[in-house]
Amino acid sequence: MENLINWFEIPAINFSRAVSFYKAILNIEINETDMFGTKMGFFPYDGKNVSGAIVQGEDYNPSTDGVVAYLNGGNDLQRVLDKVEPNNGKVIVPKTQISPEMGYFAMFIDTEGNKMAIHSNK
Questions:
Q1: Beta strand segments in 1-114, E
Q2: What is the pLDDT of residues 63-98, one digit of tens each?
Q3: What is the mean pLDDT of the chain?
Q4: What is the CATH number of the domain that holds 28?
Q5: What is the distance, to the nearest Å, from the Cα of residue 117 to the centroid of all Cα atoms in its chain?
Q6: Range of 54's domain?
Q7: Number of domains in the chain
Q8: What b/e readout covers 85-97, taking b as 16+ CB neighbours within 10 angstroms?
Q9: Would residue 66 count as lying in a domain?
């Protein structure tokens, strides 16, 4: 087993708003589809790395409680974090060093009310 996690889903109340938010802060394309009555916006996936989707459907409820997914902040997570508030999210933990070996993290609330985190080595 290469990765303990192989997929994640971020619940959305307003699917279009959530897709726009993540496209803007991560500077990525998100492929949208409908699967079995659930709207899904797929993050880039190369077949080797963990990926996920934004989802809107029955039983998908945004929350600040529970599991927190850490997104890859690239070389410096501050570049992503700087886009959170201009795109209607809220930074709740600024860029913080974990340790010199483990790098940095930050946390935010997305447009849907999910608590999320970002990690980078610098």
A1: 7-11, 31-35, 38-42, 51-56, 70-72, 90-99, 103-109
A2: 999 999 999 999 999 999 999 999 999 999 999 999
A3: 96
A4: 3.10.180.10
A5: 7
A6: 7-120
A7: 1
A8: eeeebeeeeebee
A9: yes
